[in-house]
């Protein structure tokens, strides 16, 4: 096979994959607006994605807040401006770190699980059986997960925000001896509700994208256990990168079009 | 604990966390506030929600910073507990060396009229701050540099050398002169001492000499006076001017005597007129003393003020939106006009294009007889479902209580009630229930309305999206999502003025 043939085949494969994903995305969006909704399934996934991830999300963001505060207080102390560390921690957490870290944690914990679960169903031909019985796998398997993620990602991001800010507050005031009153005053003065809202909106988008990507890879699994492993890895890698790229575009949108 | 309870607690906990955080971050100023404006040269260092301090106490917040006529326009929210007057002052002062600023407010004093809500604080001082000080220092340094550069030029160096030589010579001369003067002074003092000693001795000879000296001095002064008599022009001119001035003063005094007489007459007339007015004589007197007339005028002016307030405060909102009904796969379009004469009440008029129309069901009974060998008669009933009037009307009256608005009136041709909850300007939730006379359950309509671009510029800020369900508790249940536009009369004014005219 010649060099140009290889490039050509690669491009054709890439184009087919993009087209396949676009069709899958459209189908997901369409099914989201067609009742009935499987509330039992949604509740089940909400519990798994949301409730069972509180601790891991809280620990991740609490330590992130502590590390951020430790670094910032030390740097700002040079300028006698350590009371501003709280605002810096809170703004960074609410705008970027809370939604992104929450998304990463949930990709690692639940995204991989979604791909593996749906992928193993595909490998064992359970999906084919569903289709044979005229049950749409999208409606039964994907849409409840999307709804659960759309609800739980922002909810966990809200917890991550508060816990991360408390991590920063704890280190700054209890360990680094920054004046607590001034720290909180500057934090609440400089942090706007818009900062928090943008983070929550990002979390909704991340939840949707992560779930769609992970479910897509699950439903396209082939080649037995080896194929399942490959798809799970691809799902986690692509979800993580997509979260970062989407974060950039959302931030650009909020800053340039919404003035936030 | 069941799964539903666990999930419920989880979401409530998250909602509480984020609500408290947002509330704290919102820097809300508690209590009733009034809005004022101010134009400043420089808004640098000020942020939205910057504090407004009076004697170091926070009395308000800087709500918005914009541009007007090339100047920074501040929109201020100040507590109503602090009345502002036309002579109020606002000053931008540095809060810390890190470049954050606050606004210091002097509310003025009652010698000036009160500042109306929405009015402009005229006296605004924007402190230059650290940047200004740096600019000044740079300016001084530039001047010093230019001075040094000019001094270092060759021709200027020669001049400076000459000046320095002159200075050395002058100081040497001054030193010599001072020494001579000191010598002279010492000699004079010695002479005076001798003279006083001689006077004390009262020698006749010396006293005669002293008397003669005095006589000569008198003669010289007398002669000087004679010399100046009629010969010194300036002296004469001065005398002439003095004479003229005295004459003018004399004339003015005479004239002022006449003016005094006139003033006296005027005062007498004024006294007569005011006396008549005080006694209620004449039109003006009646106007001032007649209580009925005064009460009528007060009543009329009060009503006029209410009317003007209503007219000026009236807002008209135009709203049009279209919802896609998922189950019936059709679009339902609304066009509403909301007239809000006061902030606490509104009237809504609207037209709804409902693809499902008005559904009425009727039962028709047929008495049927079968003739023949075996005649039979029986009753047949037919249920008829008629869909008509796709166009429906809304006519509602509403009252506003903070973030909650209650509505009542005609909802899509049926009597009903509605409630709107607007916790934030980008989100509102609405519930309506109407058509109580229907055979089925009443039509319950629940809608969430989001304005995702409310923070952006017009016309994007007019756009909103909707999602909800209607007829939720009867068999015609449907879900929808849609998009719409809502703008007020100010926006209409802007639209009208921006439309090109032929």
What would your notes on this structure say?
The complex is a heterodimer of chains A (260) and B (502). Helices cover 85% and strands 0% of the residues of chain A. Chain A has one domain. Chain A is an all-alpha fold and 260 residues long. The model of chain A has no long low-confidence stretch (mean pLDDT 92). The N and C termini of chain A lie far apart (53 Å). In chain A, helix 2 (39-49) runs parallel beside helix 6 (137-175). Chain A contains 9 helices and no strands. In chain B, the strands form 3 sheets. Chain B has a 10-stranded antiparallel barrel. Chain B has 502 residues and is of the alpha+beta class. Chain B is elongated. The longest helix of chain B is centred in the middle third of the chain and has 48 residues, at 154-201. Chain B has helices at residues 3-25, 129-151, 154-201, 204-228, 233-278, 282-289, 291-313, 489-498, and strands at 33-40, 51-54, 57-68, 71-79, 89-94, 101-106, 120-121, 123-126, 315-325, 330-342, 345-353, 358-370, 376-388, 391-401, 404-411, 414-424, 427-434, 443-450, 463-470, 478-488. At the A-B interface, helix 2, helix 6, helix 7 and helix 8 of A face helix 1 of B.
């Amino acid at each position: 096979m010649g060099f140009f043939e290889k490039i050509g085949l690669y491009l054709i494969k890439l184009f087919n994959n993009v087209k396949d994903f676009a069709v899958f995305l459209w189908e997901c969006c369409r099914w989201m607006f067609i009742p009935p909704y499987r509330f039992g399934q949604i509740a089940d996934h909400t519990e798994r994605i949301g409730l069972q991830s509180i601790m891991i999300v809280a620990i991740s963001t609490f330590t992130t807040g502590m590390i951020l505060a430790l670094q910032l207080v030390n740097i700002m102390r040079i300028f006698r401006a350590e009371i501003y560390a709280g605002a810096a921690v809170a703004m960074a957490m609410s705008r970027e770190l809370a939604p992104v870290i929450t998304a990463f944690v949930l990709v690692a914990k639940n995204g991989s699980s979604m791909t593996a679960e749906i992928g193993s169903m595909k490998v064992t031909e359970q999906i084919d059986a569903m289709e044979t019985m005229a049950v749409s796998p999208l409606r039964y398997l994907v849409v409840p997960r999307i709804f659960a993620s759309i609800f739980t990602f922002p909810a966990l991001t809200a917890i991550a925000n508060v816990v991360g800010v408390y991590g920063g507050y704890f280190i700054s005031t209890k360990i680094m001896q920054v004046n607590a009153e001034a720290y909180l005053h500057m934090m609440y003065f400089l942090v706007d509700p818009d900062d928090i809202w943008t983070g929550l909106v990002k979390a909704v988008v991340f939840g949707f994208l992560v779930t769609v990507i992970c479910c897509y890879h699950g439903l396209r699994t082939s080649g037995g256990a080896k194929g399942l492993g490959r798809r799970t890895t691809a799902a986690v890698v692509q979800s993580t990168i997509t979260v970062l790229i989407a974060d950039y575009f959302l931030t650009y949108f909020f800053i340039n079009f919404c003035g936030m | 604990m069941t799964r539903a309870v666990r999930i419920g607690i989880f979401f409530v906990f998250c909602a509480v966390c984020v609500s408290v955080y947002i509330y704290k971050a919102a820097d809300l100023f508690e209590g009733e506030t009034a809005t004022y404006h101010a134009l400043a040269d420089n808004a640098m260092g000020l942020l939205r929600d910057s504090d407004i301090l009076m004697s170091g106490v926070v009395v308000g917040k800087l709500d918005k910073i914009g541009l007007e006529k090339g100047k920074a326009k501040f929109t201020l929210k100040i507590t109503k507990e602090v009345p502002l007057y036309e002579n109020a002052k606002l000053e931008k002062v540095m809060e810390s060396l890190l470049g954050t600023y606050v606004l210091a407010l002097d509310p003025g004093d009652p010698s000036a009229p009160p500042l109306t809500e929405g009015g402009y604080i005229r006296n605004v001082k924007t402190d230059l701050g650290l940047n200004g000080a740096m600019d000044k220092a740079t300016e001084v340094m530039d001047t010093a540099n230019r001075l040094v550069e000019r001094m270092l030029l060759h021709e200027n160096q020669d001049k400076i050398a000459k000046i320095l030589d002159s200075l050395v010579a002058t100081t040497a001369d001054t030193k010599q002169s001072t020494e001579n003067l000191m010598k002279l002074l010492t000699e004079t003092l010695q002479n005076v001492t001798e003279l006083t000693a001689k006077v004390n001795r009262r020698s006749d000879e010396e006293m005669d000499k002293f008397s003669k000296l005095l006589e000569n001095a008198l003669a010289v002064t007398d002669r000087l006076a004679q010399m100046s008599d009629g010969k010194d022009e300036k002296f004469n001119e001065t005398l002439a001017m003095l004479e003229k001035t005295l004459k003018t003063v004399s004339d003015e005094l005479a004239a002022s005597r006449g003016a005094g007489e006139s003033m006296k007459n005027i005062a007498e007339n004024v006294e007569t007129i005011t006396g008549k007015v005080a006694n209620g004589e004449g039109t003006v007197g009646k106007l001032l003393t007649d209580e009925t007339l005064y009460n009528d005028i007060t009543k009329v002016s009060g009503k006029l003020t209410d009317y003007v307030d209503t007219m000026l405060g009236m807002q008209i909102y135009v709203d049009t939106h279209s919802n896609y009904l998922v189950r019936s796969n059709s679009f339902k379009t609304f066009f509403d006009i909301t007239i809000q004469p006061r902030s606490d009440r509104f009237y809504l008029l609207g037209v709804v294009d409902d693809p499902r129309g008005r559904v009425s069901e009727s039962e028709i009974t047929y008495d049927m007889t079968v003739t023949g060998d075996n005649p039979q008669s029986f009753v047949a009933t037919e249920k008829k479902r008629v869909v008509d009037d796709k166009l429906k009307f809304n006519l509602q009256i509403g009252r506003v209580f903070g973030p909650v608005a209650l509505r009542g009136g005609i909802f899509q041709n049926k009597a009903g009630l509605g409630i709107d909850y607007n916790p934030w300007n980008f989100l509102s939730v609405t519930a309506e229930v109407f058509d109580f006379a229907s055979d089925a359950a009443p039509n319950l309509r629940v809608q969430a309305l989001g304005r995702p671009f409310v923070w952006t510029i017009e016309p994007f800020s007019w756009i909103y999206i909707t999602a909800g369900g209607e007829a939720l508790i009867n068999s015609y249940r449907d879900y929808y999502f849609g998009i719409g536009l809502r703008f007020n009369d100010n926006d209409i004014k802007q639209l009208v003025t921006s439309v090109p005219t032929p």
